[in-house]
Every structure is written in C-alpha cells, then in structure tokens.
C-alpha cells in the first residue's frame, strides 16, 4: 500500500509531454486492462473507450480542445464516450455475457435483466446521460491509478468541445457522446508543474467519521 501511495503522490496532471517518448505495447495493454476491470453500475459499462493514435486526427482534436498541447504531444489519447442509446439491447448483451462467463442459464438472469431495463427506461434523458457519464469517471480513475503504478504520466481533461469531438471521431453515427478524455505518456523535463508540491485537503478537512 505504501508503494501505491508513493505513486499517487508522484503523479500529477502533466501539462507538457515529451513527444519523442512512447508507451510500450505491454504498458498500454496493462492500462487498457485496468480500464476494462473498472467497476460500473450493475457492471454494465455503458461506454466505449477510444484510443486515438492518428496524429492528423489528434491535431484536429487539439483545435477543439483549446489548443492544449497534451492532445498531440502525449503518447496516447483516451476518449471515454458514453452510450447515448443505452437500453434493452445493452442489457441483453450483458446478460448473455454473464451467462456465458459464469455458466448460468440466461433464463435464470431474466429478473436481473428486467430490473436493469426498468431502471434505465425510467430515467429521463438528462438523468440517463448523467448516469452513464459517471461510469466513465470511475474508469478514468482506474486509468490514472494504473498509469501511476507504471510511472506513466496522465492528464484527465474536461476542457474540450464534446460536440466537435463527436463529429471528428464519428461518434454521432455510433450513438456515442464524448464524456471525458485523458492523455498518457511521459513528462517533459521543461514541465515546471512536476516540481510543484501536491495540494490537497488535510485528513481533518476531508474526512468525517460518524
């Protein structure tokens, strides 16, 4: 646990990346697996994670992300995109996955499936979008922790035009909506932010024990 805390103290929201340094395929797969294993409501994972490597596309995305150089200089760009039309089909796929993975007859899971369908159907559109977006932030947290364990830098980012991201990445045609993004790679020696002391609330300010 001490190593985990040391690594979380080491990480910071990197402002300037070394564009010459790339993440190895092994480390990239570790980060992807950490994201895949993320918790989500019911385990449904109502989102996709798009990894953008193409430099031309990343240049376009930078233009609609306020010119932030992390978009183009990092090794990889992760875009978490929620399923706009999450509903019965997604639940059916999930139930089939449970059935196959655990060797449980799908009929035995019908009640669980119906409960999920009822919950989702009962959500107004705005509430549904908020719910699915929350799930992507849980996955983002796993990305940040996994990257820190690997001593890979990462920057969670909300400063981008989601509608323009959707157009550039073709999300509109896929029924997806960009929720949050993260860049990963290696800090540049000229990034002064890496030398700043981490500022967080104290235990006394943050925690309440009842």
TrEMBL record:
Pfam families named in the record: Nitroreductase (PF00881)
Domain of life (superkingdom): Bacteria
SUPFAM superfamilies xrefs: FMN-dependent nitroreductase-like
One MF term in the entry's GO annotations: oxidoreductase activity
Xref: InterPro entries: NfsB-like, Nitroreductase, Nitroreductase-like
Residue ranges occupied by any Nitroreductase domain in the UniProt entry: 9-186
Keywords from the named record: NADP, Oxidoreductase
Entry's family note: Belongs to the nitroreductase family.
Name of the molecule in the record: NAD(P)H-dependent oxidoreductase
């Amino acid at each position: 646990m001490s190593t985990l805390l040391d690594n979380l103290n080491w990480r910071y929201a990197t402002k300037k990346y070394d564009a010459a340094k790339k993440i190895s395929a092994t480390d990239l797969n570790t980060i992807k697996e950490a994201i895949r294993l993320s918790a989500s409501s019911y385990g449904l994972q109502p989102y996709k994670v798009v990894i953008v490597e193409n430099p031309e596309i990343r240049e376009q995305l930078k233009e609609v992300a306020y010119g932030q150089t992390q978009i183009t200089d990092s090794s990889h760009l992760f875009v978490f995109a929620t399923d706009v039309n999450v509903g019965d089909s997604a639940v059916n796929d999930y139930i089939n996955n449970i059935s196959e993975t655990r060797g449980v007859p799908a009929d035995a899971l019908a009640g669980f499936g119906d409960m999920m369908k009822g919950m989702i159907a009962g959500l107004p559109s705005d509430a549904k979008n908020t719910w699915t977006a929350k799930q992507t932030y849980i996955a983002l947290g796993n990305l940040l922790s996994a990257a820190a364990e690997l001593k890979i830098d990462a920057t969670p980012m909300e400063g981008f035009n989601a509608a323009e991201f959707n157009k550039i990445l073709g999300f509109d045609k896929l029924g997806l909506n960009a929720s949050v993004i993260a860049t990963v790679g290696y800090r540049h020696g000229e990034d002064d932010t890496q030398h700043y002391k981490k500022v967080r609330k104290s235990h006394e300010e943050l925690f309440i024990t009842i």
